[in-house]
Amino acid sequence: MARSWTFPALVGLREAGQMAEPVVIDPTDFDAVGVLTEAIVSLRAHVLISEVDASATVSAPEGWHPLVINAKQGGSSVLIVRFNELSSSRLRNVAEALSKRGWHLDEDREGATLRQPPGTTATDSAFEVLSAIGIGGAPTDSRTVVARDGNGNEVDLHP
């Protein structure tokens, strides 16, 4: 007879409809890398425990590019930027700067993606996210980070 394992409580799991407090990062504060690293670790832990992919969205000031961190069950991460909010000149500047950092422009030329293999440290991911959200002259306003898993449950990104 196969044994079924259940977890009495899934760390960081919230039922759909419940709101987790967003993580706030200040790109001008060096502590931002630590705060974002902890959020990425929490996102990855949720994926490992719940066995469901999850995504965290980093907000953007009006007219700029939000960033999405996709955490996958296999341990990889995918960083995604969409240029929907960018003017043509900002789009060119941001796309060129991301391309120079190793990001791949999407086929529709309206976004860019950076795939990070399993084993990429959360700190390396955090530095890349912070670089990408500030690229092309983006304002250094505080950003919020919220996450949901593939089942629609909010993920608590606080340690």
UniProtKB/TrEMBL annotation:
This is Unannotated protein.
